[in-house]
Design a protein that fits this description.
The complex is a heterodimer of chains A (1019) and B (449). Chain A is mainly β and 1019 residues long. Chain A folds into two domains: 111 residues, Immunoglobulin-like; 695 residues, Beta Barrel (Maltoporin, Chain A), CATH 2.40.170.20. In chain A, 9% of the residues lie in helices and 46% in strands. Chain A is built from ten helices and 53 strands. Chain A starts with a helix and ends with a strand. The relative contact order of chain A is 0.12. The relative contact order of chain B is 0.12. Chain B has two domains: 313 residues, Serine Threonine Protein Phosphatase 5, Tetratricopeptide repeat (Alpha Horseshoe); 66 residues, no CATH class. Chain B is globular, with a radius of gyration of 25 Å. Classes of the chains: A mainly beta (1019), B mainly alpha (449). Chains A and B meet through strand 22, helix 7, strand 25, strand 26 and strand 30 of A and helix 1, strand 1, helix 3, helix 6 and strand 5 of B. Strand 30 of chain A pairs antiparallel with strand 1 of chain B.
Amino acid sequence: MEIFLHAKLTRVPLIYFYLAVLLLPFAAAAQNETHTITGTVEDAGNHQTLPGATVTLKGTKNVVATNKSGKFTLNTTQSPPYVLVVNYIGYDRTEVTATGDAITIGLKTGNNQLNDVVVVGYGTQKKEDLTGSVAKINDADVNKIPVGSFDAQLQGTAAGLQVTNPSGVPGQSIFVRVRGTTSINSSSDPLYVVDGVFLNNTSLQTLSLGGGSTSPLADINPADIESIDVLKDAAATAIYGSRGANGVVLVTTKHGAYNNKPRVTLDISGGWVQADRSTLPKLVTGPQGAELANEYWVNSGIDNPALNQTVANEPFRPVADGGLGTPDQQQTFDRIDDLLRHGGVQDYNVGIQGGSDNTKYYVGAGYTDQNALIQVLDFSRESLKFNFDTKVSKNVTIGVSNEISRSYRSQAFDGDGPSVNLWNSAISTATYTPKYAANGTSNGTDNIYILMANYDVHTISLREVGNVYAEAKIIDGLKFKTSFSVDYDNYDESAYWDTETSIGKANNGEAISALTQNSTWTNEQTLTYQKDFGIHHLNFLLGNSFQSNTDALTSATGTQFANDAYRDISSAAVRTATQTWTKATLASFFGRFDYNIASKYYFDASVRADGSSKFGVNNQWGYFPAFSVAWRLKQESFLQNVNWLSDLKFRASYGITGNQAGLTNFAAKGLWNGGSGYADVYGTPAPGTAPYQLGNPNLKWEQTAQTDLGFDAAFLNNRISVTFDVYDKQTTDLLVLDPVPEISGFSNYYTNDAAMSNKGYEFAINSVNIHTDKFTWSTGFNISGNKNLITKLNTPITDYTRNWVIMQQGYPMNSFWLYQQTGVNPQTGAVIFAGQSANGTVTAADRKIIGSVYPKGYGGITNTFAYKNFDLSILFTYQFGNDELNLNRYFRERNPSSGAVDTYVLNAWTTPGQITDIPRLTSVGNNYGIDNSTRYLENASFLRLKELNFGYTLPQSVAQVLTVQKVRLYFVGANLFLWTKYTGDPESSVTADPNAQGLGSFGVPPQPKSFQFGINATL
Amino acid sequence: MKKTTYLILGVLALATASCKKFLDVNPVDQVSDSQTIFDGNSAQTAVRGIYNSLESNNYYGYTFQTLGFFSGDNIKYVGSQTVNQQLTNHDVSSDLAAINTSWAAIYTVINQANNVLAKVPPLATTATFTPALKNQLIGEAYFLRALSYFDLARTWGGVQLVLTPTTAASSLPNVKRSSLAATYAQVLSDLTQAEALLPNTTNRIRATLKTAYALHARYALYQQDWPTAISYATKLINDNNYKLVTPYSGFFANNAANTSESVFELYYNTTVTNEEASQWQPSGNGGVGWVVPTSSIVSLLLDPTVGGNRSALIETVVSQGVTSYFGNLYYRTAGTDPAYLIRISELYLIRAEAEAETGDLTDATTDLNAIRTRAGIAPTTATTQSDLLLAIENENRVEFAFEDHRWYDLVRTGRAQAVLGLTSTDQLLLPVPYSQLQVDPNLTQNPGY
């Protein structure tokens, strides 16, 4: 295969190469004083040659790149000896002295991040030249564990990036926050840009499936990703204007390289996921549950004699007396165990990349299939990636970047809600209830065996993310680029609710088919100018962009089917349909000016003007400037000779960014709705209209002013590098649905009328602890802390059912709003709430804002070891100082006669003098009647062994025998250990609603442990 | 080089020129609120929109009705939102979600009616938009506003009277609470206006003159204006279009709807659905079974001398070996059960009660027995005024077992304290929603909350 490709793809360039080699001696001979330096650049470890490395004759602008064989030829009029500087991404910058003879230069795998190229808005910068705060994550970190989307793999990898994985369903949306939550009603998700294409990150899911929502990012194959850059401060994000406030995640896919022979990589892995037992609810046994049900029954009867509940008629009494049998006659039925499985995961990726003198390419194909840890749920994706760049003339380059993928999901109801909820049906049904009883259900839940056998909900997302561009060099240093990009998602959902499921039973079968088409096109022009005037380096960017997003949904529902064999809506007796269409446009102009003196003093400025169709007519255009400075102290003469200090740079930035993500497209307009029909005569529906929303012509973006101070330092020949930042983000004009008195006929309207602050720090340290020929050990550690505060909010906003969550001025976002249980009366077993009246009643005024959904600190620590051909990398992630309301406990700590209860309830008060926090079982009074109790609030700090990656690379000798370049065998384990006081998965969240982040566990399968074995080969 | 420059300039020029147009995007399924009611057709759609809100799940489609359901002794809530049991326990917290939901839903109807009342009168009539049709639409808006304020008054007492539409966030209503008397006066004023405009036809799903009469009869009963109650009830009872259907289940069973029993019901279809069935029906029938009859109403309905053929209102379900009863008035799985607002039997019982109160025991007994006979039970044995009034109260309880009558009947007769064991008269009114007190400085809380 290798030979074939080699021949096919490189024949033409090879001829040029041979010609060049042949002609070289003549060229050298022509000018007497010209000397030629030749050599080869290779990996110092495995002696692989490195094509595309740059070789600079130190002190000159004489630079060449190594060819596909890693060889270079440099002509100079200087005399030997020569000092050559060699740079190659991922390797240490290396200086060698050459005498003029052919030289072989070995590069060591790099720990010097400062030489990395960082992708920034509409361009790239060398990391050493950055004035803003940008975190770079390399591909190795985004394609390991089976979670569907690449963002889920970023947990713990970068400071300032908080990633929470709310459920164990692969391909679901996760929470990603860059420097805190900046918004109440808008999205706080970062902006995602893949190879210049603005990626839709809002789930297109329309099926109401209770908990999470599907992640549009899961359509992107992580294996195609080269690197991810997270832009954090205003200096980096202001160029994205009204969409930059939440940070920007720039994804760069693999592009191949010019003059690079084809390289085929194969990556195949397989394994399974399984539940982490420590995160599962611990239910009582059947006999225990029956005992508790009796106790609840009798106690309630004592408290309220009108109920007529006594020992004589308690539910679990002998069958002969008309009961269900005594408690000790009950069996225990473990539904959770039947629902769980070892879910198979498999992943196949093949990629070919390379390039000739004028063309570079990457072609990737991938298939992944991830079964969840519980039955039914499945995610799979096929993807094809094609990136191609070619120089059509000396000054003009054109290219495409293109991914087509198909994501298939077998879905099920999870999260909140009883009916057809897989996980809830398993954990809510009392353990004494027989599995296949005619009504093996309770609490409105379904029989899970029926659900498992009949679930038929699946979604296919067809995604095209593509970009074409042309770039022309106008004069030296001045380039014009124009591009057109598309993000198109055809999201096709279908569901059939079998007549045995509770939804289907109600309607004699119910089918839903929903087709959403979301498309974004962007047209962009940029003009860049780069020029050095002696020690003055100048970089200038000017651009404009037009973007349009359209979202169209057609959905049909059919009920009343002949039987379950007919599943198409056309077979239904009753059919309804709905259609929605919405569109938003954005016109932008932007510019950036980077200037530095001798790579020592840096001054950068950028500005963007965004005009958005979403904004009110009085505020159609927004302007977003940013300024930053940096001082690279190491370049000062007084530090030049301080050898232990490899680099030191101070940075400061200030700028303004915006957020318009949560602004619905027509939020600014006062509107009436159609579709509010009624009949004039019985049986004949007719159209009707009704007020829909109050308008606000002043509506605009949310605005964040961010100040960032930081430094980057490196020590001991770059073996230790440190980055530290502090920031202050002040967000104003927050979009709120300002409540208006309901007597107006409206509940609220959108205004920019709240403010929030996020202040925090980020610290990252990378070190090479041991570096010998045989053994290396390096460590990466990061910690970040963020303090969120709502600084202005006229009316507190309560959220979620039972108003568990409150947003109130002077408190952080998403605070818990609860009745504080101070204890249980040891004499009576009655619950005690702070502030309760003498007769035990509580009022809304007694509710308190308590606990914190946001951690005091979070981050990760990675240790990487390499010994001979073995490598091992271990990532721990952690979070501390946050709480989570365990809804699972709320639902499992009550009426034992209507559903399963947790083993906690065994501690319920029974005898005077007993000290416990679980009140006496009764249906009367507040003991189990207050939903919003602090009893369910738990410390959700955790330390997780997120990923363990162990590999063995076949020795070069064996690889040669196999005629491959490199073969690595590996094992990856994810979520292997969890240390937490929380009784469940501390990251879990009942829905994808970001304001429900602190509401955990209920109905949501926890994150699984996973075990994968794989082989990675380079042919 | 030159070509490239021209290209760039060209693209930029084109781009800038079209910017304003590019940014002007409008929805296709909604219209600007400045162009809503402008001709006969749009007036009709706006009036239909009011009914749509009236029958929404937040109002007569479920939530508002539950306030009365759970406060009475016929229906209880056993679902996961255990806070709803506060209503049954008469220990209601002002942050109970159902309270705000209902309050908001009622004022939504009022605002829509106000829109019609403000914008339809100036419209010119045409050949199709006849003066009669125009009067009808205005009359319906008055009727629906009367019904809304009536519901507010009987649930919360005197409320803020908003009589003009809200068209912009900059001009929100700014009024204080009116007294209970003033609120009821507004109801009467709206009803009187409606009666002057509505056509004298029979339409069981829209307001007509007769619907207005029926609500007027109920209004008079609440005001203890017995002669008016009798005269307005009589207008309906004497109308051949309204009959007690036999048997009792004839007005709802077997997908019956729009029967001659019905004076005013709300029409649902698969697009606009009624939530009741999904709350009442057990999971085996596709519901959640969270709204259930109390054991006392079950015994009454099953008692052949009390419930008679009204036992059709309940069915049994066996779950985990335990037989339990569920209400079967709302059972259509597609959510197409009507909401029953006024049935002719109510007019009989209104007249019976008013007659009994005025000492006309003979006519009162006749009217009461009309209901009992239809239910297949023996005539009443009550002979004294007080016994007869109690008999009428008990008849109301069973006749409207799963309709929103019981709680309001007990409150208006002053019997709630005795029957439901209330400890304070403050409990006769529900608390004003906590969130509204936060938003509206004009609003004050009811005593005791």
